[in-house]
Amino acid sequence: MSLQLTILGCHSATPRVNAFPTSQYLEINNQHFLIDCGEGTQRQMRKYKVGFSKIDHIFISHLHGDHFYGLVGLLSTYGILSREKEMHIYGPKGIKNATLQMLKVSESHAKFNMIFHELSSKESELIFEDDKVSVRTIPLNHRVYTNGYLFTEKEKARKLHMDNISNYVEIDRADYLNIKAGKDVILPTGEIVPNSELTISPKKALSYAFCSDTSYKPDIIPIIKNVNLLYHEATFLADREDLAKKTKHSTSKQAAQIAKDAEVGQLVVGHYSGRYKDISLFQKEAKEIFENTELAEPGKVFKV
Amino acid sequence: MSLQLTILGCHSATPRVNAFPTSQYLEINNQHFLIDCGEGTQRQMRKYKVGFSKIDHIFISHLHGDHFYGLVGLLSTYGILSREKEMHIYGPKGIKNATLQMLKVSESHAKFNMIFHELSSKESELIFEDDKVSVRTIPLNHRVYTNGYLFTEKEKARKLHMDNISNYVEIDRADYLNIKAGKDVILPTGEIVPNSELTISPKKALSYAFCSDTSYKPDIIPIIKNVNLLYHEATFLADREDLAKKTKHSTSKQAAQIAKDAEVGQLVVGHYSGRYKDISLFQKEAKEIFENTELAEPGKVFKV
């Protein structure tokens, strides 16, 4: 089990020389996901050596430009790179038409299929699942329809504890499947051997929750409870809670409160407003409530 | 009269860390124009200190992503910056719908009017004119409908040569308008005083031609004849003329031939393919045909 998050961009909308809009690259249990795709994301992917061909799934939180305007350029580039594998794109209703019309007017003739999964539910729903990972939406509260995403590794099967099993001549190879599935064994004598004696627990499944953009929304806590890593937006500091409320963003203090109440392993904050020159203040403010807080910065890698 | 061109981006489509797609900022006779707007242009504008509010006219050559995918983000930013002045956008038919649909899906509520001037003519046409500058299209030959743009300063009126005029007591203030307009003066004696004696020539009107993307197209020469500054794309070197022909691009040699035949003041080449690591080869190749050739590079300024 492994989880590694690379920040490609982590600033809010207005363009600045050393600011990059939201985008993240997540490697989880050998799956590779792109999360949000602000303008310039494809250049950031090159800069931080993200393998373009590894990504088959792109998750867009909402359709504001600073989370989405890099998508059409990236898809166009996949066309230039002669991609053939299908690409799955998850995002709010409307993403498909706007993207395809832009590609059409550019006469971008991609050979690969783009499969859009348009979201409109206000409840958390399972939107992707394979044998390695599942992805659920985290309904957020922003000025437009917005989802965060919860990425969770699949639990691996229990492993046989062969040393212990060999103590029981009565246990046959034919029993192994049941033992792996967690069942106890009843010996011919009627003695019960508990599964915990016969198996080794697999490594704990890891999880990552991405929450941007949103106002303070404590009802996401049950969904993200105990995740190993939480990214939560922090556009403002607590001194501008009024502005956070008005624009449906969060303060760093609020992000930390969510992390604390959800008992997560680590918090990463980002989406800093351009009004703050010293982003270390975001970390300082959050740490007062939730100690294990880190700052998102372009190129920074978080490994669990 | 003044002409200053700032290169914001000058590379071809595939993303690279230190490559930026086409965009240029032109200051001509106190007018301020943006030419092409590849992804990331707004960040390059910040980097090279282009005043966002100065620009009221954006010219898009064609709708390939590397010349156009930065437009929607820039317009969205103008909305965030509370722009109120109208913005004129010139480009191929289709630009309006694709742009507006993308802005609509993002719920970008701009207060300013966007006036799209959609182009479809295959002949050179006058598309903008005020008392300072005129702009004509330069029909190019690329894989999609493409125009270059010719920017020409308006000739200023002739100035009165007051020292010489004062030699003629017969000339009255009432004659000045005719003299400025270039007319000779007939004295009561019948003597003709030539206008050239009574006026000073204004500074020569300057002109800039932007030609990207295009295959070698010598029929643009009459349109761009004698311009002070010519930007002509050079995607390939002469060793890959076959590829230039196939993809409807030009070689540096071909760009230089156009510059020579059009007898321009200076040539700037750009739009280098990513296959060439050493772009100085583009200059070397062009100089063999047209000596006054410079390389486009991000942030480079050309002053006439």
UniProtKB/TrEMBL annotation, chains A, B:
Q: Where is the signal peptide?
A: none
Q: Which cofactor does it need?
A: Zn(2+)
**What this chain does, per the record?**
Zinc phosphodiesterase, which displays some tRNA 3'-processing endonuclease activity. Probably involved in tRNA maturation, by removing a 3'-trailer from precursor tRNA.
PANTHER family from the xrefs?
ZINC PHOSPHODIESTERASE ELAC PROTEIN 1
Q: Which gene encodes it?
A: rnz
Q: Where is the active site?
A: D66
**Which GO terms fall under molecular function for this chain's record?**
3'-tRNA processing endoribonuclease activity; zinc ion binding
- Give the cofactor binding note: Binds 2 Zn(2+) ions.
Q: Where does Zn(2+) 1 bind?
A: H62, H64, H142, D213
Q: Which UniProt keywords apply?
A: Endonuclease, Hydrolase, Metal-binding, Nuclease, tRNA processing, Zinc
Keyword Zinc included in the entry's annotation: yes
Q: Where are the transmembrane segments?
A: none
User: What reaction does this catalyse?
Assistant: Endonucleolytic cleavage of RNA, removing extra 3' nucleotides from tRNA precursor, generating 3' termini of tRNAs. A 3'-hydroxy group is left at the tRNA terminus and a 5'-phosphoryl group is left at the trailer molecule
Q: Does the keyword Metal-binding apply?
A: yes
Q: Where does Zn(2+) 2 bind?
A: D66, H67, D213, H271
Assembly and oligomerization:
Homodimer.
**InterPro entries of this UniProt entry?**
RibonucZ/Hydroxyglut_hydro, RNase_Z/BN
Q: What is this protein called?
A: Ribonuclease Z
Family, similarity comment? Belongs to the RNase Z family.
